[in-house]
Amino acid sequence: MAEAVRLAVESVEHGWGGPFGALIIRDGEIIAREMPAPTSE
What we know:
By secondary structure, this protein is α+β, with helices and mostly antiparallel strands. It has one domain. The chain contains 1 helix and 2 strands; from the N terminus they run H-E-E. It has one helix at 2-13, and strands spanning 22-26, 29-34. Strands 1-2 form a two-stranded antiparallel sheet. Strand 1 and strand 2 form a beta hairpin. The longest helix has 12 residues, at 2-13.
């Protein structure tokens, strides 16, 4: 959970989008992480 929060904070700090972060975990190990991609207005 701490890593998802870190991703969300990083996303906001860099202006990459909202406060979102996603992880895929298998057998207790993070195998993928992602943040939202910026969208054009």
